[in-house]
Amino acid sequence: MISKICNFEIYKNGKIYNKSAYDHDVISLLTEIVNNCNDKCISQRGQKIYTLKCGYDTETTRITEIKKSFVYIHQFAIENYQIFFRTWEQFTFFFNLLNSLIRDKNKGKKTHTNIIIWVANLSYEFQFFRKHLHIESVFARTERQPIKVVCDFLEFRDCLVISGQGGLKQLAKTYCKTQKLTGDLDYTLIRNYYTEMTEQEKSYCLNDVIILTEFAEYIFNTYKPLHYIPLTQTGIVRKDVKRSFGDKYKSHKDFISQRYPKENTYKYLMENVFRGGYVHSNIKFTNEIIENVSCVDFTSSYPAVMFHCYYPISKYEKIDIKKFNEFDDKYCYIVQVTFSNLHNITGHSIESLHKVIEYNPKKTVIDNGRIFSSDDKITVAITELDVIVYSKYYKWESYTIDLCLRSEKGFLPKPLLGNLKREYSKKCELKRKKLDDTIEYKISKSKVNSHYGMCVTRLNFSEITYINEMWDKIKSDKTYNDLIKSEFLLPQWGIYITAWARFNLLLTVSQMENVIYCDTDSIYYKNSKYNQQVIENYNSKILEKNKLLFGDNSDFYTLGQFSPDGFYKYFKTLGCKRYVCFYEKDDKLKIKQTISGVKKNALENLMIDKKLSPIELLKLFDDNMEIDNKYCDKLTSSYFDDSYTQIITDYQGNTCKMCELSGIALMPSDFNIKISKLYKDFYKNSIIKSLRPENNNNELIEKIISQI
Description:
By secondary structure, the chain is of the alpha+beta class. Helix content is 36%, strand content 31%. The protein has 21 helices and 34 strands. Strands 1, 2, 3, 4, 5, 6, 7, 8, 9 and 10 form a 10-stranded mixed sheet that branches. Strands 13, 14, 15, 16, 17, 18, 19, 20 and 21 form a 9-stranded antiparallel sheet that branches. The protein has a 7-stranded antiparallel sheet with strand order 11-24-25-12-26-27-28. A hairpin with a 2-residue loop joins strand 5 and strand 6 (81-85). Helix 1 (23-35) runs parallel beside helix 2, helix 7 (233-245) packs across helix 12 (414-432) and helix 12 runs antiparallel to helix 13 (439-455). The radius of gyration is 28 Å and the shape is globular.
């Protein structure tokens, strides 16, 4: 029966080259390709890399009865050649051969040179191949999510980590001429080693690895002249910004090292003070169908506050103050505050429960993971910006400042902002020229966003290890001083970038009426002239600021302003990252959904299939709504670290035994929209009636705002 499995199939530029290749054919081909490659570049960590364009991918079949998956075909691309093989024996032969050829090429050299094999979603492929090759080292941020896997002279890299794309389809649209084919491989059909693939199915597989080699070509063309190959998307911008400092980089590093927080302070800031974007629904409107809803969002919210706002620039010092009105306008402040009887006055709950240092669960009302009110004491660590926001959304009986840290105000380093300005200008220029569908635009946009990502990257106090085929998380053997040696940005800058973004969003929301939902930089609200005036007033102030900062460069005039992002006939939210809305287009109502964990067109598919009207669907969108897998295409992951074997008969009637040493199964499942009983009871009860009138902290608010 083994004769039914062809040895190898070799393609060139997507066309058949050798339909039934033997081992010696593969040896001859790989030997020629490797021997002819003498071009090299340097990886981010100093490793020499041959500029061979390589990509690897597999296709798996899932057996629902046993909830396991098996690899039935491997595809490998190297330069202009693509090679198919079916069994793990062929896999081992192929990769050991490639590794041996690179080893021979390196013979007699002081430092060896590797090749990079690009993979889309390395964590998936690694779970299958990890016990078939000698794994020398693995670099990962979290368990089972490798970014780089070194197998002697072969380096497997995850292309999605460096590209910042959500999948191979998006990566191809951004970087490649070849595009991913869709719908040409029916994943519901059972396949095995003997399954004959149609030409259409083979084309689907071929395109996947051709895309990877085109991405490799882009990487080499772009970064070889810069003498490094980056490992992550953020690493690209980090390198750019470092170069922007030029010969002042050493003095800047000295500046940073003198102001970097001590270890205990750093951990305190990251655990208690740092907060991300504000994503929440107003309890007044949760689980209600709302008509005539407008949406606006900030234009580049994080880049805007990096340019517009002040930041802590001196080492934090501990001081003793008793009241907020003792804040000096020369300083940034971080305070640990204990509030007594904190109560919501707007319907918007702003403080995340997981950031609260201490509270009484029995006397605290929780609004979908955020603090609504407390009839006891509650302790938090916040910036002076958050104090203002608190004053707009909560009323308290009393407070004590348990700890106060302060730092002098200043602005972010000019080289950092200069690099951000160049990338933002480039992005705007490409968009102005209607080139926003080009590789250059998408890369420039991702670089703009990465400036923020770079500022909020945390130190790794633990390491993810992969030793003896086992994952583990261990404490890093590096000291705190070791960890911060390479840092050239202050962690408090990242804290203030997000604090400023929330400040701008939430102070605007506090001035508006009938705000329904917020998502980091977006506001959904019931349309009214009053709300439009609030938005216009905000934008006019930002325009004035941009003209002062950027002169006659009109590309920057809208930076940080609100721009319209849709008008919706109907809108309904069930809480954070759960909303459905309808908008008019071509005299028809179109649906837009955001449901965390569900693909974007799931409810549209359900609506069409069930012939539902918009109102019928919105009524169905409720607690315990079940979305069938045929609409949501949801997959659940199960990892298997021990070997498993199964006799499998494919859909063509071929039978063979298949075995995996380890694997992962992605099994289809339905999606249930479940709302916690606590949250459900909260919005169903009449607790909203307890909202207080406007607070009496206006004097404090005006004093602090005047200092900004």
